[in-house]
Structure formats: C-alpha cells, structure tokens
Structure prediction request, 139 residues.
Amino acid sequence: MANSASGMAVNDECKLKFLELKAKRNHRFIVFKIDEKIQQVTVEKVGSPEETYDDFTACMPPDECRYAVFDFDFTTDENCQKSKIFFIAWSPDTSRVRSKMLYASSKDRFKRELDGIQVELQATDPSEMSIDIIKGRAL
Prediction:
C-alpha cells in the first residue's frame, strides 16, 4: 500500500490513534512524523484531552515538517457545543527542502487514511495556525 509518488507507508498506530481521537475522543491531538529510514508515517506524540491548543502548538518543531490532527471544541453563535477535526500540514520555511518535498508528496495519501478530517490547514509558520485562524475555519 505504498504511495506511488513517495513510497511512504502508514504505520497502523497512526490509524488506530486517529480512530480513538475521532470515536472515543480520548486524545486532544496527534502529531505524526515521517521516519525517513523506514519510509513510514509514525505517531510522534499524542495529547491528552486536558491539553490545550497552546500545548499542541508547542509540540511543533520550529525547523522540521510534521502532520498533525487536532480535535477543536468550540461554541457556535447559537450557543451550540461543536467540535471539528483539523488536519494540519506543518512545513516551516526553515525545514530542509527534501523534507518539505517528502511531506508534500505524501500528504494526500496519508490524509486519505484518516477518515473523518473536517478541515485542512497548511502552515509554514506559527501565525498561520494561530487559535484565531482555527476558530475562523471552524465556524
């Protein structure tokens, strides 16, 4: 099941943790990384439900690419509690060109493995994934 564009496999743990986040809501976020040695997307960090968006953004390395999923809870203007699952492709300008290309070419296939993503966000610096942008995209 390797991606024809990049040859990247997806570790089963990625799908399992995502299902737990989506169905059981026992994670706030998941950070994924590509392990270039084994050509596989793996889980790097899982955030507990108590963790905040700030805890999540603090997990993003300043000069390395990552994929991430964040379960964002919010209240609508009609005072309804809702949640949306965000897929964030983190690709900072300071990361290696090879790494950016690898993450870009593997993103769509990886995203297809995670059924239930509602909003996608591409970010190259922290301002592009600020809480205000997340709120704006969620509503």
In short: DSSP finds four helices and six strands in the chain. Confidence is low (pLDDT under 50) at residues 1-5. The first helix runs from residue 12 to 24. The two ends are 35 Å apart (CA to CA).
